[in-house]
Specification:
Helix content is 80%, strand content 0%. The protein has 4 helices and no strands. The protein is flat and about 50 Å long.
Amino acid sequence: MEARDRIVNLALLAASVAAWIIVALILTTRDPYADAMAGYTGAIAIGLAVGLLATPLCWLVVFARHRRIAYQGDWARAARRGAWVGLFVAALVVLLLVDAFQLPILLFLAAIFIVAEVALSNER
């Protein structure tokens, strides 16, 4: 692992902490029943925070699986996977917000995201 990788990991984790602070501010200061956009703003903020947290974790998992060797494209793959996770969590929060959350819908969304990631991350 190079110093650049450590810096990127720490920067993404710091950005995630800042995003979680913003989520805490949104959740404590805005009421989704009084303000219609508060729930969607919170969903975007939660998705962003989870995505920023998932990106370095995805890179570290791949780094450990490759026996501590960082290959070209690992950061792009980790960023894409973090974006998928963030989008999934944001969609989950929106489903909860509009009272449309059901287990089959959740499993269908998870299957779509998994199939899309598998299709995009074929290692050649």
